[in-house]
Amino acid sequence: MKKILIVDDEPRITEAFIDAFGLDYVVASANDGRRALELLESFKPDLVVLDWRLGGDIQGRDVLITIKENHPHLPVFVVTASFQFMDEIKSLGANSCLLKPCTDLRERILEVLPTGR
Amino acid sequence: MDWSAALHPYAATGFLTSLITLAVGCFVFVQNRKSSIHLSFLIFSIAIAEWSFFTALQALPRNPAWSFLAAKICQIGAMLIPVFFHYFTLKIIGRDQKPILRLGFLLASINIFAIFFSPLFSAGTRSIGGINFYYKAGPLYILCVIFFVSYVLFAIYQLWDEIHSSQGARKKHLEYLFFASLAGYGIGVVNFFPVYGIIVPPFPFSPICGAIYSCVIAYAILKHQLFDIEVILKKTVIFAVLFIAIYSAVSAAVYFATAFFASKNVPLLSGISIALAMLLYEPLKKTLTAVTNRALFQKKIPYSVLVQNLTDRLAKIHEAGALAHEIVDFLTQQMGLDWAGLYLKTADGLHFRLASSELKALVTEFGMESPVVRAAAEGAKPLILSPFDTEADQALEKESLRKLKVEALVPVLVEGKLDGILLLGKKLSDDVFTAEDAALLETLMEELGMFFLSARLLKEATRTHLELGQRQKMAAVSKLARGVHHEVRNPLHTINLFALATLHNLEIGRWHPASREEFSQDIVYRSRTMLEEIERIKNSLSRFAQFARPQQELDCSPIRIKEASERFLALMREAHKMDGIQVRLKIPETLSLLAHEGVLQEIFFNLFTNAYEAMQGKGEIIVEALETSDACEIVFSDSGPGIPREILSRIFEPYFTTKTRSEAAGIGLSVVRHYMEILNGDIQAEACGPLGGASFRLRFQKASQVAGKKAA
């Protein structure tokens, strides 16, 4: 199964994401940027769903830049609760910028990672 | 020369008249050299002085020729007196009769020539009334007498005519001049009889009529400010009376002392005299000042008290319109005016608009080109109109003021620029504005400028403060909105994912009986979580609404702090929020504050939640209440880690937090501050309180101020 790394500082969101997509994908979660970068190397996901605003010293912006530098072909969906960062997110190379709550998240993920179900 | 003859009553009064008349004329002229009225009065006075001097001088020579010469020179003044009197009268009443004046000068000149060179007019000298060589009239001298009397009557008639067409203060002035002239000339014409050898009382004291006339005019000056020498003459009168009074008192003391003490102890007597003089001086001076002011100078208002009273009242007012109203009201009452109005410059600087007026003003607004505004802008001191002001200087402006029934104009200068115009109508007593009135208005002019400057600065500071407060509020609301945006979308995202999960489970058949129980448990869990997230959204939205709503009226009432705190703690215990937390209340039983019950509970809740999270559910809280002189304070302290000093100034900002993530994080204290503002109180934070953790001091209004007061 394809692997998805979900990065969000709210545990409920990562928990709900696993609940929603855990049957079709192998999902790993990180609640901060540092853990996300660790899993990026160890878990080797096929898709990263990344929250723009993370707690701590490593923000979603930093994670996105690192991914695009080290894994330029790895698709990244950036999820945000605010309109104001969309232009910046696109300019940094995110494949998709989604506004919370994203009601067509499943369809978008399936486009990138079809399950064959 | 027979100098002893100078003591003859005729000579003595003549010299005295000359001196007094000349002095009064010079005083008048010095006060306003540019005024033609003042100049005409000086010329008139010189004529009288010349006449009385030489009429007295004719009594001195032992040689009849010198007496005759002095008498003829005296007749120059006599012939010019009616002409200059007419000239002075014309200046007073503002008429122009140049042809008559020229005719008068011509006739006077003819008479003078005839008196000097024709024995038909001047027949020599005679002895009369103790004077050896008195002027003797010729047969045609009667023409001079007719000229004098008819010309004087003509001039007096001009006065009479003008009186009928005048009113108010001007009429009073003219009436006074009229009767004074009648009396003065009525006595003065007696001086013609001795030239025919006829003695008519009050001869030989008749020259004094000139002095009397001058003094009467001087009194008119004092009483009605016909000319402005009030201060000088007042001081002269006071000094003279003081000197006489003290001299008399000391002399009396010395006299009785020498009468009763056999040995003349000079040092003792001197000491007693000096002590007496010192004791008498100050009270006597005060009494004389008050008497002269009341009796002679129409000053019924103690001006220093008036200025002090007005400035005391104005000091309590900080708004320009209210200042204007107070000034107009005060001056109208205290100065007895029929009208007063204060015009203030509009915000655009193009007009002066009526800000306050006693009685209906004729004009409500002046443009910058108005003569009234020009008059105010040109003067650095108050402009007071005289009833006899016929000068061309500022004629247009003065005419405009007269049409508005204005008698005084006071410019109000703020930082050197004209900011207001105070117009005063006539006095109800018909008295004119005196020199002291002018001094009062000049003092007020300076004071008013300061008060209006103060009002303007306060208005600008308030507006700036309001704008700043509004900008801060909007910035806070904007930040709050972004925070709420975030606090709503995240829970919605969770709900969205759980809904997707449920839907997906159904789609792939997880509802199958074999996995139904597990599926059901998942549904229950997701549903509960979604409901919690919905609650989170609800709380965020309601907090935002509380913060962002316009400040509205709350019905505040006295609340006993101890009872309110205990009610709150009971609620927290029901919600199991008190486990691990020990709360101590140090609150007097009867201490009350002014607040809204619901808002107070919200404040307690936010502070309690803040402390609970900081202590991680375990620790101690102290709530202490105390009363100060002007407020009621509650101090809320916890035993948590405290507040880092570097962030202390930011803790009341919306969504400012040092925590990684928590429900509605960072908004509680901003809500508390917002509520305290609504309640007209404030909140201060300390980094390290009595328990080592954070401490918050809340200041409320005391319940004793006004029960049930509405807070903005």
Compact overview of the structure:
Chain A is of the alpha/beta class and 117 residues long. Chain A has 5 helices and 5 strands; from the N terminus they run βαβαβαβαβα.
Characteristic key phrases:
heterodimer; A: 117 residues; alpha/beta; Rossmann fold; 5 helices; 5 strands; globular; B: 712 residues; alpha+beta; Rhopdopsin 7-helix transmembrane proteins; Beta-Lactamase; 6-stranded antiparallel beta sheet; 18 helices
Structural account:
The complex is a heterodimer of chains A (117) and B (712). With 117 residues, chain A is α/β, with parallel strands linked by helices. Chain A has a single domain, classed as Rossmann fold (3-Layer(aba) Sandwich). Chain A has helices at 11-21, 33-42, 60-70, 86-91, 105-112; strands at residues 3-7, 26-30, 47-51, 76-80, 96-99. A five-stranded parallel β-sheet of chain A has the order 2-1-3-4-5, sandwiched between helices. In chain A, helix 2 runs parallel beside helix 3 (60-70). Chain A is globular and about 35 Å long. Chain A starts with a strand and ends in a 5-residue tail after the last helix. With 712 residues, chain B is α+β, with helices and mostly antiparallel strands. Chain B has five domains: 3-227, Rhopdopsin 7-helix transmembrane proteins, CATH 1.20.1070.10; 234-296, no CATH class; 303-458, Beta-Lactamase (2-Layer Sandwich), CATH 3.30.450.40; 467-548; 554-711, Histidine kinase-like ATPase, C-terminal domain (Heat Shock Protein 90). Chain B contains 18 helices and 17 strands. In chain B, strands 10, 11, 12, 13, 14, 15 and 16 form a seven-stranded mixed β-sheet that branches. A six-stranded antiparallel β-sheet of chain B has the order 5-4-3-8-7-6, with helices on both faces. In chain B, helix 5 packs antiparallel against helix 6 (168-188). The radius of gyration of chain B is 46 Å and the shape is elongated. Chain B starts with 8 loop residues before the first helix and ends with a strand. Residues 660-664 and 706-712 of chain B have low confidence and may be disordered. At the A-B interface, helix 1 of A face helix 14 and helix 15 of B.
